[in-house]
Design goal:
The complex is a heterodimer of chains A (about 375) and B (about 575). Chain A has about 375 residues and is an alpha/beta fold. Chain A is built from 15 helices and 11 strands. The chains are: A alpha/beta (about 375), B alpha/beta (about 575).
Chain lengths: ~375, ~575
């Protein structure tokens, strides 16, 4: 049992802890992630992630697919792509100064809120994380040192207003899934443990990835994801060669590769910002609403969430494409990811959900 | 040298010197670029072959690097790290403990009994290998710890047991070590490492490796990526600044060939049959140079494809049942009563056998420290009292594995099989919450086949159940034997097996494969008894038009519930199984 260098000196540990508490959003320097703009093929996955980045209310993205298709690469790349956001200075939950209704208790008590620019958090929830780090718990350090009952925010607090990413989401322990389900639905994290009773806002876009061959996802969790995309390994040779080539040059020199792609990244970033600004003005004509309802009825999806997600995703997609209203083409583009995981399962039906959605879309919109 | 899929490589008459040389080369390549290549799967039991390869690797690695060995069952607290109990108590403040993955940083990690690593553990290791760091979010500690290492998975699996796919996919070399040959002189590793980043890859090498991967039916893009890294390392070792065709050929033999899932299309007629490995190795001169690089790379891989590749691909499943021979090899490690889903903590006394919930205990003690310390001087900095002790609670494992044993003989076979298949899929469709698994064994003709090993994946079940054979005699005893093996394997994995036997009870093939009703029935009763003794919960569904006396006897012999269900359909069947499992 050896401990980390720097743990033995009290100063070292205290310093490490205090940086963490004061700027919970600071990410330790790691190698620059693979640029989002440099990802080859996988259009459906990239579109879904961009749509979720434009409209966070869509409710997250689930990426299912084969091994080695760049699922986690794409999600991690999103972090570097997102434009910074405004947050209340000194707030450990990263409250939005412009959204007074959603402030945390501490911010609500302040007379004046100073805004600073912070990167949008993309928080990894690693397998093997313990519940106290996910939900937040009593700060042992301060309890041991000062006898103070202080709350130490967990990953859910850090992910507020950003993204929470779970790789291999189908292998996540059940008790953590339960916790996530509740928080993702209410947008609020309630901690009741060790004599601490605290609630704080925790609204995040849930992004999960996994390989269905390693186990199925709980239906309740499946339902929390707004969009569900399926990724396949590209089969055509030129695409495969391009993937290998770019990956290799990235592995050799991260910095140079990222610099070479910075222009494209900036372009994409501007596109996201423009789409966000345009989003409220995007028109959804009655015809499109009717189309969406027809499609959901034809597929027999449960509840209204499918329709709502379909419309929202189509609107965000239209905004990304620089259009002013939603038409058939936009509905078509997002129909599969918005609906394929909401179909009522018939285990004896061999056709995949994607095929069923495609078929219904084809019947309704014409070939 | 290596093998594909899950089939076991056939024993070879004599070790092929070319293959042995390739294996030595793999050790050197890995020592040049352990992080880039991920590592290796060594499929062999302990012995001079495995030790020889490991010794070679270790000799080639830089001095002083980590060389850690890790069992496949380490808990998260040791794998990833967490709170260090001793140091925390001594210091009176939280002290982090590094896990094995972080300790292996800069070196090589050996994963012993890798085939026993649970999917969750494989996924944790894979995530760390991808990120090159441990994301520690445990016990109130949040850290990023560097973890750049090469992983050598020691796979002692027999038959279709193997290392979890997410790991296999990330490890460049899959090797069945041969007896170590004459030791090569150690190449200049320092120079090779220095050159590594400067080695150029001609476009046609990338194209050739990608093309070969497609031709060999390798879906994952990590394979050509790793092959390219291997080719680069080979060039660096040879002192080249550009990857040469022979580097690409070596990479194809070592990285691509073991992953092949199909034989590439036959080479053009004018070429001789698959060239000798020796030729492919040192053929920079002569005719082969005229061939396009892609063909040469593919030929190199084809030359070392394991014999009987295609036969082996299908055979894995069928052999699955035999892996559970009751030799207790995998056994008692899982016998701890303290397993299952963690269900929080409780206050209690810390007796032998109970698992202390360390962090919860410290948390319980923490708020009282200033009060307890009051009026004391010296002594320990942390005062933990008995009432602070928190113990871990576990929910008893409730996951069941429903093992369908289906009589696939005779005319009713197709019907029974399709109903069983429907029931399997219905059960899987609504068993996520309980994390149940389902397996399917069919018996017909002279023996029993595992048609679907225990799985919770509907996707996999559908794939495996797509085409089911039927017809022939009724080897009931063989079916029961196979089922018992699987039930025991389930128990060892901490699951509760539930046998569901679908038969019309007309046994007519004895254990030795000969016909004859009397002997077959005696054998079946004989095979049924151990099931009752082992206490395996079972359900016998009699599918005969009229209930059979023998089926009833058999149910009694195996301690099963007897359920005459002449028109067993998928829905009723899955309902009955649910009732039995509840």
């Amino acid at each position: 049992m050896d401990s980390l260098p720097g743990d033995h000196g009290r100063g070292g540990e205290a310093a490490a802890v205090s940086t963490r508490t004061k700027t919970p959003r600071a990410r330790p320097a790691a190698r620059a992630p693979y640029p989002f703009a440099a990802i080859v093929a996988q259009e459906e996955m990239l579109r879904a992630l961009l749509v979720a980045a434009v409209d966070g209310s869509i409710g997250g993205v689930l990426v299912l697919g084969d091994r080695g298709t760049g699922k986690s690469t794409a999600v991690r790349a999103l972090a570097a792509l997102l434009p910074p956001m405004k947050a209340v200075e000194g707030c450990r939950f990263g409250c939005d100064p412009s959204d007074v209704a959603a402030l945390c208790d501490a911010c609500r008590g302040k007379a004046r809120l100073r805004a600073i620019e912070v990167p949008v958090p993309v928080v990894d929830l690693p397998l093997g994380a313990t519940e106290d780090r996910v939900a937040g718990a009593l700060d042992i350090e301060r309890a041991l040192a000062d006898g103070v009952k202080a709350f130490e925010p967990g990953l859910l607090a850090r992910a507020h207003r950003g993204f929470l990413y779970i790789d291999e989401v189908n292998l996540l322990e059940d008790h953590l899934v339960d916790l996530l389900l509740d928080v993702a639905a209410s947008g609020e994290n309630l901690v009741e443990r060790e004599g601490i009773s605290i609630r704080h806002p925790a609204r995040f876009v849930l992004v999960g990835s996994g390989n269905p061959e390693e186990g199925e996802l709980r239906p309740q969790l499946l339902d929390r994801f707004g969009l569900c995309v399926e990724v396949r390994t590209p089969t055509d040779l030129p695409t495969r060669i391009e993937v290998i080539r770019r990956r290799d040059s990235y592995e050799r020199d991260h910095a140079a590769f990222c610099a070479a792609w910075e222009k494209e990244q900036a372009k994409l970033r501007r596109r996201i910002l423009a789409a966000r600004a345009a989003l409220p003005a995007i028109e959804v004509p009655d015809a499109a609403l009717e189309r969406a309802a027809q499609l959901c009825m034809a597929l027999g999806t449960d509840g209204l969430r499918g329709e709502l997600t379909l419309i929202r995703a189509a609107r965000a997609h239209a905004a990304l494409e620089g259009l002013s209203s939603v038409g058939d083409a936009e509905l078509r583009a997002v129909a599969s990811p918005a609906l394929r995981h909401r179909l009522r399962r018939n285990p004896l039906d061999e056709t995949s959900s994607s095929t069923r959605v495609d078929r219904a879309v084809g019947e309704l919109f014409g070939p | 040298m290596s093998q594909a899929g899950d089939g076991r490589a056939p024993p070879r008459a004599a070790p092929d010197p070319a293959v042995a040389a390739d294996q030595r080369a793999a050790a050197f390549l890995l020592a040049v670029d352990p992080v880039g290549l991920g590592g290796a799967v060594l499929r062999a039991g302990p012995g001079p072959e495995r030790d020889g390869w490991l010794a070679l690797l270790r000799a080639a690695l830089p001095l002083g690097g980590a060389w850690r060995r890790m069992p496949a069952s380490v808990p998260d607290s040791r794998l990833l790290g967490g709170l260090d109990l001793t140091a925390t108590l001594a210091a009176g403040r939280p002290v982090a403990e590094r896990g094995v993955l972080a300790e292996a940083d800069g070196g090589v990690l050996l994963l012993a009994m890798a085939e026993r690593a649970a999917p969750g553990m494989a996924a944790r290791i894979a995530a760390v290998m991808d990120a090159h760091e441990v994301a520690l979010e445990r016990d109130g500690i949040a850290r990023r710890l560097p973890a750049r290492f090469g992983l050598v998975a020691l796979d002692e699996g027999i038959e279709d047991e193997g290392v979890a796919q997410p790991l296999c996919d990330r490890l460049a070399f899959h090797i069945v070590p041969l007896p170590p040959g004459a030791p090569d002189a150690l190449p200049d590793m320092v120079a090779a490492r220095a050159r590594l980043n400067a080695v150029q890859v001609p476009d046609e090498v990338t194209e050739a490796l990608c093309g070969a991967a497609v031709a060999l039916g390798i879906a994952s893009l990590r394979a050509p990526m790793l092959a390219q890294r291997a080719a680069i390392a080979a060039a660096a070792l040879a002192g080249r600044d550009t990857v040469a065709p022979e580097d690409a050929a070596l990479a194809a033999r070592l990285v691509l060939a073991p992953r092949a899932t199909r034989l590439p299309e036959a080479p053009p007629a004018e070429e001789p049959p698959p060239p000798e490995q020796g030729e492919a190795r040192d053929a920079p001169k002569g005719e082969a140079t005229d061939a396009p690089l892609e063909d040469r790379v593919l030929d190199a891989a084809r030359a070392v494809l394991p014999e009987g590749l295609l036969a082996g691909l299908g055979a894995g499943l069928r052999d699955a049942a035999r892996r559970s021979s009751p030799d207790g090899r995998a056994g008692s490690r899982h016998a701890t009563p303290l397993r299952g889903r963690p269900a929080g903590t409780r206050q209690g006394e810390w007796r032998a056998g109970a698992r202390l919930a360390l962090v919860e205990t410290l948390r319980a003690a923490a708020p009282w420290q200033p009060i307890r310390r009051r009026g004391r001087t010296g002594g320990p900095r942390l005062l933990v009292k008995r009432e602070d002790i928190r113990l871990r609670r576990f929910e008893a494992p409730q996951e069941t594995t429903a093992i369908f044993v289906v009589d696939a003989s005779g005319s009713a076979a197709m019907h029974r099989l399709s109903e069983a298949k429907g029931a399997v899929e219905l059960l899987l469709a609504d068993c996520y919450v309980r994390r149940d698994k389902v397996a399917l064994i069919g018996f017909r003709g002279r023996g029993a086949d595992v048609l679907l090993p225990p799985t919770a994946s509907l996707v996999r079940a559908k794939r495996s159940l797509a085409g089911l054979p039927g017809g022939g005699g009724t080897p009931l005893a063989a079916g029961l034997d196979t089922a018992r093996g699987m039930a025991e394997a389930c128990r060892r994995a901490g699951r509760t097996p539930l046998l569901v036997l679908l038969t019309d009870g007309r046994a007519n093939v004895a254990r030795d494969g000969t016909g004859g009703r009397a002997q077959a029935e005696a054998d079946a009763l004989d095979a049924a008894k151990p099931l009752r003794i082992a206490g395996v919960p079972a359900l016998l569904v009699d599918t005969a038009p009229r209930p059979q006396a023998f089926a009833r006897d058999l149910a009694a012999a195996m301690g099963a519930r007897y359920l005459p269900l002449p028109m067993a359909d998928a829905a009723r069947l899955s309902g009955a199984v649910r009732d039995a499992a509840a």
